[in-house]
């Protein structure tokens, strides 16, 4: 796990060092989105550093509030930080009103199962435990440009948490707003 964290931090540092050396003065943007996660609701805040017109490095903070419904209802939360890299794969050329970006990166975070309690109200014992988690993700972002500074953001990520007790694959799909800083 320490090695994966070190590799992820190294990749992010290399990306930002390359940005600084490229000499480009491109916009940064911030965004927030909310939407569906498996069994609940998620919210994501992002900071993007645009390397050029067609790519950007992204740092996201994600939180999920959910409840696994089965024989017993077990609440859980996931909190992660996600460094990543995205490229533009399609853009409407006429007025630049629409764009589609794909990317991915690493995931580091913490999952809290049943508020940290390993027993349910019924006395049943939960085999899973709250723990740090790590993994990778792939994502798709659609943008609808509203003006010079704002765009509607449609986002979908699929996470692979290597050591999660909740499940290895975890989806997020949300809609939100992106603001461009110049």
TrEMBL record:
Native organism taxonomy: Bacteria, Pseudomonadati, Bacteroidota, Flavobacteriia, Flavobacteriales
Source organism superkingdom: Bacteria
Keywords per UniProt: Signal
Signal sequence segment: 1-18
InterPro entries given in the database record: Conjug_transposon_Tra0
A UniProt-annotated Pfam family: TraO
Species annotation: Flagellimonas pacifica
Record bears the keyword Signal: yes
Protein name: Conjugative transposon protein TraO
């Amino acid at each position: 796990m320490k090695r994966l964290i070190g590799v992820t931090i190294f990749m992010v540092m290399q990306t930002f060092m390359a940005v600084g050396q490229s000499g480009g003065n491109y916009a940064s943007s911030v965004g927030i989105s909310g939407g569906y996660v498996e069994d609940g609701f998620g919210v994501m805040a992002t900071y993007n550093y645009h390397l050029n017109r067609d790519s950007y490095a992204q740092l996201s903070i994600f939180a999920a509030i959910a409840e696994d419904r089965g024989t017993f209802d077990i609440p859980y939360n996931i909190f992660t930080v996600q460094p990543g890299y995205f490229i533009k794969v399609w853009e409407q050329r006429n007025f630049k009103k629409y764009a589609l970006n794909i990317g991915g990166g690493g995931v580091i975070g913490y999952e809290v199962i049943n508020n940290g309690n390993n027993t349910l109200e019924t006395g049943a014992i939960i085999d899973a435990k709250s723990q740090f988690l790590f993994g990778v993700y792939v994502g798709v972002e659609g943008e609808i440009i509203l003006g010079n500074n704002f765009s509607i953001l449609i986002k979908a990520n699929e996470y692979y948490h290597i050591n999660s007790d909740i499940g290895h694959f975890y989806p997020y799909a949300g809609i939100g707003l992106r603001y461009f800083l110049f």
